[in-house]
Amino acid sequence: MRKRSSGVDRRKLLAGSLSLIALSGVSTVIAKRGSLLPPPKGNRVVVLGGGYGGVTAAKYVKKEVPEADVILIEKNQLFVSCPLSNHYLVGLIDYGQLCFPYNRLHTKYGVKVVNDVVADIDLPKRRVYLSRGYIDYDYLILSPGIEYDYDSAPYFKEANWYYPGAFRPGSEHLYLRRLLEEFEGENIVFTVPKMPYRCPPAPYERAALVLSYIKENGLKAHMYFIDANEYPPVLRDGFMKAYEDFYRGMATYITGATIKDVDLGTRKIKTDKGEVRFDFGSLIPPMRAPKLLEDIGLIYGREKWVRVNPMTFETKVRNVFVIGDSCESYLPKSGYAANSQAKVVARIVASRIRGKEYGGELIQHGVCYAMVNLKSAIMLEVEYKYNIKTKEITKVLREDNTWKVSTAKRYYEWARGLWRDMFF
Ligand SMILES: Cc1cc2nc3c(=O)[nH]c(=O)nc-3n(C[C@H](O)[C@H](O)[C@H](O)COP(=O)(O)OP(=O)(O)OC[C@H]3O[C@@H](n4cnc5c(N)ncnc54)[C@H](O)[C@@H]3O)c2cc1C
Prior knowledge:
11 helices, 30% helix, 2 domains, binds flavin-adenine dinucleotide, four-stranded parallel β-sheet, globular, alpha/beta, FAD/NAD(P)-binding domain
């Protein structure tokens, strides 16, 4: 852990507060106001991030230990799902189906939801700073997702204003769908960053669905699919066969390519494998864990993700856990993985609150579905089991690369089941 002189590092607090100004127009002084909440009667568990990991963690800790004071901090008012957002992009579902309010977590489970931005965290003091004041905690569960890593690819920053990556929850999906609706033909470019990034099959699914949409709507268009990886990192056989069988001649797949620049004036992407001119696109930049986690000393050197115990998700700091896409884990970065990691952490925290160390089996699941056209899907499943007593880890991986309409139906049911598990 990086050394900090005392309490809150002022330079970091200022940097955090400046980003707050950009986000919500509040002053740096506000972040230093007093405690936002009265002290709890018992233990307080603070969860950062109302996405797949954070919502699940908050609900399950509260279910396991109803007497604990559980606080979920989220900067957005509404949860918007990235899973199924590719379906929305091509008109298979409505945007509203991706959205869920946080209020049921409060009314049904008693989780306090604070709608604010976390600007800084003082780990030694066990204190989280928000725009309106601070909150002290006994246990901290961090699930803030990803940030686009513009430092390692600065040319994406401005380009994303016009050609969104749509890999963060919310308005980027609306933006991309509007661009697709207005698209009348010619060249499309989609880019895929090098692994690891959020949801490995999602860019390949997006390419397949948009090609299917082009076919269905009789558009004259050609897709350039620029991939920093040599092949799809998961479900390779299913995707490659689908591209060959359904979309032959409609797309050029440029693999193992490093992007050097994006020229917005001439609308050209320059790579080490040549140039591509485009009219419309989705440029997915490289990703990293949010810089906040680096500022508070949980990311080391030039690393981009938080190192945790891969089975318990505890960081080097006791009772501070990082789950979901922000951490380095065995599972591919996915909503289902974040949900399953959250349950692992909820069990550990609940046991500690009761004065015991959790001693049972810890299980993590990852499930990823991917559409290969407007009707059929492929899928993969991975499971890790860790026996705390014997320290044995077992792994089961299953890929189903044969596309089926029934798998596409299961995809919808799976997503509904996950949302039910989080919010209902
Ligand atoms: C196109 C696409 C398709 C996908 N499809 C699937 C799929 O089929 N299956 C699957 O399992 N996964 C899928 N995923 C991946 C999935 O969306 C992510 O893996 C999942 O959202 C990770 O959960 P998380 O809790 O780590 O982060 P998130 O769900 O992103 O949640 C992070 C939350 O933290 C909040 N936050 C961050 N910083 C702060 C701060 N400082 N203060 C307050 N709030 C903050 C954010 O607003 C956000 O709500 C897909 C992703 C994409 C982009």
